[in-house]
Amino acid sequence: MFASLHRRVLIVGACCYVVLVKIVVRVKLLPTPEQAAALECTLRMVNDAANWVCGVAFERGVPREYELRRHTYGELKARGLGAQAAQHVIKKVRDAYTALRANARTGNLGGPGSKRRVKAESKPISFRPDAAQPFDDRCLSWQYDQRTVSVWSTAGRLKGVRFACSPGALENLRDHRRGESDLIERDGVFYLAATCEVPEKPVNESPAGFVGVDLGIVNIATASTGYRAAGRGLNRHRRRQLDLRRKLQAKGTKSARRLLKKRARKESRHAANQNHIIAKTIVTTAERTGCGIALEDLTGIRSRVRLRKDQRQSLHSWGFHQLASFVEYKARRAGVPLVYVDPAYTSQECSECHHVDRRNRATQAQFACRACGAMMHADDNASRNIARKGEAAWIAGRQSRVPATPRVAQTGEATRQPAAPYLQARPLTAGSS
């Protein structure tokens, strides 16, 4: 189960509102062999149809969705797709082209004329045979007590398809599921990813302090409370997986390729599980002590840092963004305030006397202030500096005189929302992006 970072505000009455956090709950389907064959055939048929629609959209210059529907809907129905399935295929294609244009506009595919951008824009978008397919409530219904679903397929309606999930996930599905669900196939196993809109807990407006979190590779996360998540085990696991991949790729046999495919997502699942455990520990500690959380804003760090060739693999497999997103959504659900701060000089500044000197960082693990003589673990020192910056950013946000965005209550009188609790403090200092 994971969460997106989108929030929606529902106005209730004249003076209160509810903020909703989108949680994506993924459940594992347990179909019979006949049901599994029907689901597999359905995914392949709808994705083959989506590839045909992509070709039509590319030839016609990616028309609006209404025009695309007018040119393709009849053929999709003739291919055996139901009315709602055909509509979802068209919408999926249109959304894919919208995402492509957005990536090109923001430079994610390189500049105009770059090899990567030209390659992406010179041919129709294509979907894998097992690409996810969205289903709405007319194509998919849930029976929570029986833990089964009824889903449309090209072989007809499949009823009584069993699914498995945790009690907490089932409760979220029963109480908060909204909108579409995606059918996903991974290595022959089927899943449903359902969107749930969960009410956000009111944010603690007066935190007792802030828990600073220093992110790293040697130590994945170090909190100012003394908690440290060592990265030795995860880094050892990654090196072992890397060595195994290299050996299997060098063999090149059919059995080696089969084993590579089987292990393809094992490392990412292991890392995500570790990040969930670390994030939960940090947020639970902050919630219990009535504190907020301060994280480093590490945007663009991979492009700023220059490393030796043997160190690049460690940096690019570092899941700091995933860990930060896990901490953020768990903090929102728990009502814990969270701020992002500029990490500049946090590893060089003494948390006791605030003297800044590059030579204060004696080694990777040791910090020794050349002004006051304070000695401590370097990550502990950095986490304390981040906590202090987070508290300063929170106070500055609370005291800001910039008017909040007004909202109109039912009475017609303008009221103001509280200042946003999830702040970003990015002072213009050397080394910041």
State the shape: globular
The average pLDDT score comes to 83
Please provide the ordered H/E string of secondary-structure elements: EEHHHHEEEEHEEEEEHHHEHHHEEEHEEE
Q: Which percent bin holds the helix content?
A: 40-55%
Spatial separation of the terminal alpha carbons: 32 Å
| Regions with little confidence, pLDDT below 50 for 5+ residues | 11-15, 404-422, 424-433
Sheet having the most strands? 8 strands, antiparallel
Secondary structure: number of strands: 18
Q: Into which percentage range does the β-strand content fall?
A: 15-25%
**SS-based class:** alpha+beta
Q: How many whole angstroms does the radius of gyration measure?
A: 25 Å
Tally of helical runs: 12
Tell me the domain tally.
2
